[in-house]
Design goal:
single chain, 257 residues, alpha+beta, Beta-Lactamase, Arc Repressor Mutant, subunit A, 2 domains, five-stranded antiparallel beta sheet, 12 helices, 54% helix, globular, DNA-binding CsgD family transcriptional regulator
Length: 257
């Protein structure tokens, strides 16, 4: 940084009292690191989006209109992991993902990107991303050099967003019982209700009672929503293969550059 140290930025962030001020700080970060974009993106378990950054308003609106949240490999990859990730290492193999990438680059997002997953209270999920146009070696060296800064910036940006947008953080949910967890886990893995009831050695009527109880505790509109919220809030954890068998639950709920 030539004109802005990391400490300077964190002091400015700490003094922020409105979201609009954070939006302005992302432009300072972009200019300081001499990259194309800096973006903070908050995604709820219901698929609602909120954020700020340097993307063009045209791309942001296009992203929402196209419902790219459902297929964006950056969102899906960050949701499934906890470590910072280079976009090139994500799964871009599907036709939809490749088309999305072409569209993003055409809108000036950049051919390189790096994102840091963020999680807060009661299942809050967000992503801090940086993107640019350059070759792979230049980008790799850049991210290695500044990774510590980016992790700190991401953490404090998320803390400030939580402070200013308290109404966006979901209320704490009541804990699920072991049987409710089992029922939702098997459903998330793709098993039908009859199969789940047999595996738990209970009747389908009893299974229905467990599912409805879990749905009520999670504030979910239906069973699919209950499973998605249980995963997003950390009540149940299933591996990648199980998620695929279930049709990719998280991808349907949150599945930006």
């Amino acid at each position: 940084m030539r004109t802005l140290t990391l400490d300077d930025f964190l002091l400015k962030l700490d003094a922020v009292t409105a979201v609009e001020e954070i939006h302005g700080l992302t432009f300072d970060l972009r200019d300081h690191y001499r990259i194309d974009h800096v973006v903070y993106h908050w995604v709820s378990a219901e698929g609602d989006q909120y954020g700020f950054g340097t993307y063009s308003p045209k791309w942001v609106q296009h992203y929402v209109d196209k419902e790219y949240l459902r297929i964006d490999p950056v969102v899906v990859g960050c949701f499934q992991g906890a470590q910072p990730v280079n976009w090139k290492r994500l799964d871009w193999s599907s036709k939809a993902a490749r088309q999305f990438n072409l569209d993003a680059v055409a809108h000036g997002v950049g051919n390189q990107g790096y994102s840091i997953p963020l999680r807060g209270p009661n299942g809050q999920f967000a992503i801090f991303s940086l993107s640019h146009n350059c070759d792979d070696d230049v980008w790799a060296a850049f991210t290695i050099e500044h990774l510590r800064d980016f992790v700190l910036i991401a953490y404090f940006l998320n803390q400030k967003a939580l402070e200013l947008e308290k109404n966006r953080v979901p209320e704490p949910t009541r804990p699920l019982s072991p049987r409710e967890v089992d029922a939702l886990t098997f459903l998330a893995m793709g098993y039908g209700r009859a199969q789940v009831a047999e595996m738990l050695t209970i009747s389908e009527h009893t299974l229905r009672a467990y599912i409805e109880s879990a749905r009520f505790k999670l504030g979910a509109a239906n069973t699919i929503h209950a499973v998605a919220k249980a995963i997003a809030d950390g009540h149940i954890i299933i591996g990648g293969a199980a998620r695929d068998a279930a049709g990719g639950w998280p991808g349907r709920e949150i599945a930006t550059h």
